[in-house]
């Protein structure tokens, strides 16, 4: 038997990168998105990478976990979970925007474990000479398909220069954005982030997308901005237009009421957000598609277990995404490639990072898909200069917690986050 490979030390580096003014049901993205890069250094000098949220309360918990990992065998993922659970304790650290649904101690713990688990898998890959996809069960596809993620947005943050995508505040703006995104990345399905304008305006945008892209499967996600009644009405009016309707209304009970009448499947990354949510969701038939997200489901191996549960209960499966960089994209690609029942194209914010990355060799999109790397581990390499620059941006930007609502309130003082709003 080969000797265990122990963790020598762990670093967690908070970083920031420019984020366009994207609107959602919580408000608007701030000028900087926060992330944290985890580097797990093994005793043989190899380094595993992970990426996660960079909000201050989360960073504090990451620090506690990082301090507890010395000597852990990089193959001992159960040991990782035990150590992190002991270091973190029972803590519930919700995010302010609420775009990933309710928080709990179990979900908080899963969020803290995740980047370390990805980094250990990266290390396992380096130790064995195998890509992470092989450690997750082997590849069932060579390319992972993504959907183009469309947002209502301002042309620029107030006082700043417009970004490359410009303004999108009506159906024509959304169609124009979709054209640019499809042209540049080749996406073959499209998701509109809704919950920003009154439902009829968003239905009009979906109709305009259908007219401009007759072959692209479409999705609409208002992040729980609608009542049950509004959701049922919108579902009826978008019959035949959407491959799924994502999180129209809050909660498993409300979603079940909508699902009973909606002509299309309902998807969620807001009401099934941890394993404990699944029994009720299945019993009520609240959702037909689960959007996993390794950042809050506890990492890649736990997300693969979620996929098995979805298959058992006949649930569709895809992946949720919020602002992320290339380490997370690589992790999503390996997971997507190892998941037989990935039934829909995966979400990604990659176009919205406008080229920023911490990697020397970010994975590229071709025909809307990303080829699964063959190199050992995640198959990506950190760019230490980029990391240092983005850490300096973190120190200088002054943002310590994502707050879409507070930022919008600066420009629209009466703005309130309401779920449901309509
Ligand atoms: O429900 C979703 O798809 C998201 O929450 C995705 C992103 O978080 C997005 O809404 C955002 O960041 O504004
Ligand atoms: Mg969603």
From TrEMBL:
Keywords: Lyase, Magnesium, Metal-binding. It comes from the Bacteria. CDD domains: D-glucarate_dehydratase. It catalyses: D-glucarate = 5-dehydro-4-deoxy-D-glucarate + H2O. Pathway: Carbohydrate acid metabolism; D-glucarate degradation; 2,5-dioxopentanoate from D-glucarate: step 1/2. Its cofactor is Mg(2+). The active site is at 193 (proton acceptor), 320 (proton acceptor). Pfam families: MR_MLE_C (PF13378). It is an enzyme of class 4 (lyase). GO terms for molecular function: glucarate dehydratase activity; metal ion binding. SUPFAM superfamilies: Enolase C-terminal domain-like, Enolase N-terminal domain-like. Residues 171-265 form the Mandelate racemase/muconate lactonizing enzyme C-terminal domain. SMART domains: MR_MLE. Substrate binds at residues 29, 100, 149, 191, 221-223, 269, 320-322, 349, 402. InterPro entries: DgoD-like, Enolase-like_C_sf, Enolase-like_N, Enolase_C-like, GlucD-like, Mandelate_racemase_C. Its EC number is 4.2.1.40. Belongs to the mandelate racemase/muconate lactonizing enzyme family. GlucD subfamily. This is glucarate dehydratase.
């Amino acid at each position: 038997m080969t000797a265990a490979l122990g963790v020598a030390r762990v670093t967690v580096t908070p970083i920031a990168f420019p984020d366009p003014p994207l609107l959602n049901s919580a408000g608007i993205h701030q000028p900087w998105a926060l992330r944290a890069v985890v580097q797990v250094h093994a005793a043989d000098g190899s380094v595993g990478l992970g990426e996660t949220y960079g909000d201050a309360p989360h960073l504090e918990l990451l620090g506690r976990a990082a301090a507890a990992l010395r000597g852990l065998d990089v193959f001992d993922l159960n040991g990782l979970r035990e150590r992190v659970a002991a270091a973190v304790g029972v803590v519930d650290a919700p995010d302010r925007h609420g775009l990933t649904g309710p928080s709990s101690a179990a979900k908080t713990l899963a969020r803290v474990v995740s980047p370390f688990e990805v980094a250990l898998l990266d290390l396992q890959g380096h130790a064995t000479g195998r890509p992470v996809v092989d450690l997750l069960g082997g590849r069932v596809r060579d390319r992972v398909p993504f959907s183009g993620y469309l947002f209502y947005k301002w042309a620029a943050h107030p006082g700043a220069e417009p970004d490359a995508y410009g303004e999108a505040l009506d159906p024509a703006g959304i169609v124009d954005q979709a054209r640019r995104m499809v042209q540049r990345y080749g996406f073959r399905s499209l998701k509109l982030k809704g919950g920003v304008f009154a439902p009829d305006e968003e239905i009009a945008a979906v109709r305009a997308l259908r007219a401009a892209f007759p072959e692209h499967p479409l999705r609409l996600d208002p992040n729980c901005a609608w009542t049950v009644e509004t959701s049922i009405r919108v579902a009826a009016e978008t019959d035949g237009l959407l491959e799924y309707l994502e999180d129209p209304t809050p909660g498993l009970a409300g979603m079940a009421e909508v699902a009973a009448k909606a002509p299309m499947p309902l998807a969620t990354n807001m009401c099934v957000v941890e394993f404990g949510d699944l029994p009720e969701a299945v019993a009520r038939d609240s959702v037909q598609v689960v959007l996993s997200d390794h950042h809050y489901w506890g990492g890649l191996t736990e997300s693969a277990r979620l996929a098995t549960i979805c298959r058992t209960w006949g649930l569709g499966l895809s992946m949720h995404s919020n602002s992320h960089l290339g380490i997370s994209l690589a992790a999503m690609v390996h997971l997507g490639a190892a998941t037989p029942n990935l039934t829909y194209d995966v979400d990604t914010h990659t176009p919205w990072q406008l080229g920023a990355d911490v990697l020397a060799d970010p994975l590229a999109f071709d025909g809307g898909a990303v080829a699964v790397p063959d190199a050992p581990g995640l198959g990506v390499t950190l760019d230490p200069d980029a990391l240092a620059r983005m850490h300096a941006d973190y120190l200088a930007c002054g943002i310590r917690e994502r707050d879409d609502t507070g930022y919008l309130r600066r420009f629209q003082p009466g703005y309130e986050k309401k779920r449901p709003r309509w």
